[in-house]
């Protein structure tokens, strides 16, 4: 019976992948549900297993199945939807896939499939070389936090390893709330064992006995996929009292958040895990010293943890040799917004923003001129085309008052109103603030009110100065990055697109 691989990723499901899978099953094919390769505009993209390898077709609708079969789907027959080998599609061929190498390739519910494609080699090596050498490998690799802060992962792990505590924890932050980001979701739906293995390696390194994955409630498919993987990991001896026969006990529990953006901040996430209202904690103490339930805790982003198996399996140098400046390894760049080729592109740091938007993303979906790009989610700065020579690198973006964040790139064409985007930033902050500190709680509401005055054309000069002063207060006075970084989109819009803030006053009512 011929096998056909059909994605169960949210990209594909939204475009009818279940109906395609059902039609193929009715026709007698053995259907294997996978994750996505990350080319959203080609979903659902199916792959037929043929004597000459897997041949991709897409985007496929249920009504196309009969014609594909008639054209020789089982043998890779010619058809208008035929794409050839997925690895040879230019968007995929140009990538450096370390973390996402198995996404769209393996059955995400099969531990055997994961192992057959190189999985668990990293954990086996960590168990062989021990905690100190494992931390040294992660440190040497140059891996930095992929959740936005860019803090060196090895240093965080060593801090937890050296901290005194009767129990230690590994927490994976899967509360992916930034606009235009979907890497965590894609990995949890397409290669969840990579996250499990990464957390297990972290547990070996720091001496943790329990792990938690904090997943956002808006990701039902990721929640289900990860739950299936956890069950398979326990059944296969990867998790439990005797991890892979090592004598080390480690297990993972998945917790689902309630939709608060602020719970993407590590200390607010810990409060939520403890059953409290998610609010930002003052630091120090750092979570590495006093984290979950007051114990030393590693809090890492999903992509940070899922990058670790490659580093241990292939060696720190293989990872460190890719990248740019102090930003080593690869980053899953997520292309969204008004862009022709939206999806996930994993590559070493150093591509310019212009290359990402034009060469990889293909420009706008509307065909109009690109006007602004926001990198780093709702807290990220808006960059105009004049800054498209900026390398995709933590320090390069920071030098131009921007941030990479979780790697989301959202594109806007020349119809965007940047003054309204600035108002939206303040509105977002007002809605999502945890309320603990005054600059964020009150400043965002006042910022929204001032922006409304500017949009109405009232006392524009005075209000522009007021919004600048307010942004300065929020930037330096807020307890966490929500209030502290909201000035980035506001001030960048004002700096690079000042014409949008000058409009005639509305007629008196």
Description:
Helix 6 (121-129) runs parallel beside helix 10, helix 7 (131-141) crosses helix 10 and helix 10 (192-206) crosses helix 13 (302-314). The protein has 509 residues and is α/β, with parallel strands linked by helices. The protein starts with a strand and ends in a 13-residue tail after the last helix. 40% of the residues lie in helices and 15% in strands. The mean pLDDT is 94. The longest helix has 18 residues, at 438-455. It has 4 domains: 3-93, Glutaredoxin, CATH 3.40.30; 111-320, NADH-ubiquinone oxidoreductase 51kDa subunit (Rossmann fold, 3-Layer(aba) Sandwich), CATH 3.40.50.11540; 323-413, Ubiquitin-like (UB roll), CATH 3.10.20.600; 418-501, Up-down Bundle (de novo design (two linked rop proteins)), CATH 1.20.1440.
What keywords describe this structure?
Ubiquitin-like (UB roll); Glutaredoxin; single chain; Rossmann fold; 509 residues; 5-stranded mixed β-sheet; 4 domains; 40% helix
């Amino acid at each position: 019976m011929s096998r056909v691989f059909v994605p169960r990723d949210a990209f594909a499901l939204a475009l009818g992948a279940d109906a395609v899978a059902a039609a193929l099953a009715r026709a007698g094919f053995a259907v294997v549900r996978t994750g996505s390769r990350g080319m959203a505009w080609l979903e659902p993209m199916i792959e037929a297993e043929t004597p000459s390898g897997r041949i991709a077709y897409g985007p496929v609708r249920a009504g196309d199945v009969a014609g594909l079969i008639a054209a020789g789907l089982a043998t890779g027959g010619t058809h208008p939807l035929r794409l050839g080998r997925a690895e040879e599609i230019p968007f995929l061929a140009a990538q450096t896939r370390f973390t996402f190498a198995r996404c769209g390739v393996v059955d995400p519910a099969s531990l055997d499939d994961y192992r057959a494609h190189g999985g668990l080699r990293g954990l086996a090596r960590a168990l062989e070389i021990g905690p100190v050498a494992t931390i040294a490998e992660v440190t040497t690799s140059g891996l930095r936090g992929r959740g936005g802060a860019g803090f060196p992962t090895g240093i965080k792990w060593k801090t937890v390893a050296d901290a005194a505590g009767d129990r230690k924890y590994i927490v994976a932050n899967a509360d992916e709330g930034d606009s235009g980001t979907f890497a965590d979701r894609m990995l949890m739906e397409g290669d969840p064992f990579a996250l499990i293995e990464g957390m297990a390696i972290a547990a070996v390194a720091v001496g943790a006995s329990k792990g938690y994955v904090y997943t956002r409630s808006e990701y039902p498919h990721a929640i289900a996929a990860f739950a299936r993987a956890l069950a398979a990991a326990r059944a296969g001896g990867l998790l439990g009292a005797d991890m892979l026969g090592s004598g080390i006990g480690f297990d993972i529990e998945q917790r689902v958040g309630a939709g608060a953006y602020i719970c993407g901040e590590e200390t607010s996430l810990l409060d939520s895990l403890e059953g409290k209202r998610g609010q930002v904690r003052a630091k120090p103490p750092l979570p590495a010293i006093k984290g979950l339930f007051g114990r030393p805790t590693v809090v890492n982003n999903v992509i940070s943890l899922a990058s670790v198996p490659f580093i241990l399996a292939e060696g720190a140098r293989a990872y460190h040799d890719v990248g740019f400046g102090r930003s080593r390894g690869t980053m899953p760049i997520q292309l969204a917004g008004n862009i022709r080729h939206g999806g996930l592109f994993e590559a070493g740091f150093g591509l310019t923003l212009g290359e990402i938007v034009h060469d990889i993303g293909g420009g706008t979906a509307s065909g109009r001129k690109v006007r602004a790009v926001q990198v780093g989610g709702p807290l990220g700065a808006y960059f105009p085309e004049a800054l498209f020579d900026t390398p995709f690198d933590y320090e390069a973006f920071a030098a131009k008052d921007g941030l990479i964040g979780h790697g989301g790139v959202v594109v806007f064409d020349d119809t965007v109103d940047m003054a309204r985007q600035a108002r939206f930033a303040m509105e977002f902050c007002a809605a999502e603030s945890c309320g603990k500190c005054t600059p964020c709680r009150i400043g965002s509401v006042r910022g929204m009110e001032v922006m409304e005055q500017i949009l109405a054309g009232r006392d524009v000069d005075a209000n522009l100065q007021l919004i600048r002063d307010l942004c300065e207060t929020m930037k330096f006075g807020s307890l966490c990055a929500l209030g502290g970084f909201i000035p980035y989109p506001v001030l960048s819009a004002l700096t690079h697109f000042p014409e949008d803030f000058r409009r005639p006053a509305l007629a008196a009512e």
